[in-house]
Amino acid sequence: MQQAISLANMAINKKNWSAARYALSRARVLADALPANVAVPERERLAAARKRFAARNTPAAKKVKQAKATAAKRAGGKKPVPKKSTAKKAAAQPKPAPMRDLGDRLINRAALGYGPMNETR
């Protein structure tokens, strides 16, 4: 039973919901097979794991996650730098794609067929 509960907790931590569901069902079967006064701490651990599993996609879980994220951002102590406006960037012309530097090599365009059309070959 302890092994099933620990597997469920590991799966919940890794957000592997199908494995967590299976481990919780195995632990529930084992807990139901035992008398009510046996393995009381394991039953409490199983109840806590069930609550964590049930709260995985609820609005309450999302609020807790958002609160933790904002608390972590505040812990840095630095003020955020204001973002520059993008209005000037939108008005500016886009930069042309960079040309590949061929160095000092000269290309014989006539040999490639790019010469003037009115000359004879």
Give the H and E element order: HHHHH
Distance between the termini: 90 Å
Main pleated-sheet profile: none
Give the helix level as a range of percent. Answer: 40-55%
Compute the CA-based radius of gyration.
33 Å
Average pLDDT metric: 76
Q: Please report which band the strand proportion falls in: under 5%, 5-15%, 15-25%, 25-35%, 35-45% or over 45%.
A: under 5%
Could you name the ranges where pLDDT drops below 50 across 5 or more consecutive residues? none
Assign the structural class, choosing from mainly alpha, mainly beta, alpha/beta, alpha+beta, or little secondary structure.
Answer: mainly alpha
Shape label: elongated
Number of strands: 0
By oligomeric state, this entry counts as single chain
Number of helices: 5
Short description:
The chain is an all-alpha fold and 121 residues long.
Which features characterize this protein?
121 residues; mainly alpha; 54% helix; elongated
Secondary-structure map:
Blueprint: H1 2-13, H2 17-33, H3 40-54, H4 59-74, H5 87-91
Helix pairs in contact: 1-2, 1-3, 2-3
